[in-house]
Amino acid sequence: MKKAIIIGGTSGIGRGLTEILFENNWTVGITGRRTELLNEIKENSKNRVLIQEHDITEIKSSDEKMESLFSRLKEVDLVIVSSGVSELNQKLDWKIENKVIETNVNGIAKVYEFVFSKFKEQGFGHLVGISSIASLRGNRFSPSYSASKAFQANYLEALRCIAKNEKLDIKITDIQPGFVDTPMAKGDGLFWVASVKKASNQIYSAILRQKKKVYITKRWRLIAWIMKIAPSWVLEKV
Predict the structure, then answer these.
(1) Looking at 148-201, which runs of residues are DSSP E strands?
(2) Strand partners, 177
(3) In angstroms, rounded to a whole number, what is the distance separating the alpha carbons of residues 178 and 133?
(4) pTM of this prediction exceeds 0.70
(5) What is the pLDDT of residues 152-193, one digit of tens each?
(6) How far apart are CA 15 and CA 25, in angstroms?
(7) Residue 181 burial (CB < 10 Å; 0-12/13-18/19+)?
(8) What gap in Å lies between CA 200 and CA 220, rounded to an integer?
(9) What is the C-alpha separation between 74 and 153, in angstroms, rounded?
(10) How far is CA 60 from CA 57, 64, 106, 183, in A?
(11) Is 46 helix (H, G, I), strand (E, B) or coil?
């Protein structure tokens, strides 16, 4: 039976993927900040899901929390990192910017580093990071969010290069969703908003195919192409 850990599995895409993995007979360990949600998921799964309270911004205890789940599962085939925060902050309130950076950069990087090291130690593994279509360009409505997602995407690419260079059996997948119907989707005029179920199903399919990078949902490949070639003056007016 395959074993997976989902960092941030109590809500949104993380919870959607938890349910899909569980339905497909994976043994799943999930983390989250809210113990009541962790316990609710464990109870609904008839205790077949392992849980671990884990706030990724608490860097000093992050490795310990991750090690706890790895130890209980013995070997882990897949880790999905779905934690993160999204805030609109065109006024550049530093409290907001710092919160996003502490979570989406410092917290996520520590998790990536730990998981990659564990996979290297056990000799195999598949790391999946949920970045965002926002990683492609800067966004004036959410500067730190788009920048932090670019950090994640580049970090994942760097890990893939390390694995390739060192001939490690470690797969890296960067998932870049557009708008998904979760609290992370903020702002006016949102379009092509996918349900959590649809997004999660497409992500699971990409995981099984061990894709390097995938846009969710598939139609967002068109937006990604436009964003990559659009001149700066276009983005400044959007």
Answers:
(1) 170-177
(2) 216
(3) 5
(4) yes
(5) 999 999 999 999 999 999 999 999 998 888 765 544 556 678
(6) 16
(7) middle
(8) 15
(9) 28
(10) 9, 8, 11, 28
(11) coil
Q: Tens of pLDDT along 182-203?
A: 765 544 556 678 899 999 999 9
Cis before 31? omega within 30 = no
Out of 75-84, 100-109, 117-126, 214-223, which region has the weakest mean confidence (pLDDT)? 214-223
Q: Which residue has the tokens 């997602």?
A: 149
Residue with tokens 């995938």: 214
Q: What is the model's pLDDT at position 185?
A: 53
What's the token pair of residue 24?
Answer: 């497909």
Q: Are 84 and 103 in contact (CB under 8 A)?
A: yes
Specify the 3-state DSSP secondary structure of 189: coil
> Which letter does DSSP use for residue 33 in this model?
S
Matching residue, tokens 């903020």: 186
Between 159 and 43, the higher pLDDT residue: 159
Residue 238's SS3 state is coil
- Count of alpha carbons within 13 Å of 52, Cβ hemisphere only? 24
